[in-house]
């Protein structure tokens, strides 16, 4: 009779980490690359729209204001070139700028 291994053959993790660690990474970016102004949102309240101020950072390429919910993590050295998600290799980017650069470095990125 064949014995089954005590653990599965695959893990549930990937390079990006868990959803908790990805959220913490985005929070770290907003905190450490803090913009000169905060993002202002108007949310529905019981007596009409209420003003909500959230901390924000700026996209490294286009300069748009990004909150924790909007920011994406851009690796300075892309993953295809061996880059990791360590804090010395990440910077804030908006979704459009991050997807536009792809696996290229800043000097090779399409503008």
Automatic annotation (TrEMBL):
Residues 11-20 have a biased composition (Low complexity). Residues 1-23 are annotated as: Disordered. Residues 48-99 form the HNH nuclease domain. InterPro entries: HNH_5, HNH_nuc. This is HNH nuclease domain-containing protein. It comes from Nocardioides baekrokdamisoli. The lineage of its organism: Bacteria, Bacillati, Actinomycetota, Actinomycetes, Propionibacteriales.
């Amino acid at each position: 009779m064949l014995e089954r291994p005590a653990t599965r053959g695959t893990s549930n993790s990937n390079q990006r980490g868990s959803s908790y660690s990805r959220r913490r990474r985005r929070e770290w970016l907003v905190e450490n690359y803090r913009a000169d102004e905060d993002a202002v949102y108007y949310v529905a309240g019981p007596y009409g729209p209420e003003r909500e101020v959230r901390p924000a950072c700026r996209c490294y390429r286009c300069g748009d204001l990004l909150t924790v919910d909007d920011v994406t993590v851009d690796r300075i050295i892309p993953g295809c070139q061996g880059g990791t998600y360590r804090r010395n290799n990440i910077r804030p980017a908006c979704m459009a700028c991050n997807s536009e650069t792809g696996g290229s470095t800043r000097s090779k990125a399409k503008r």
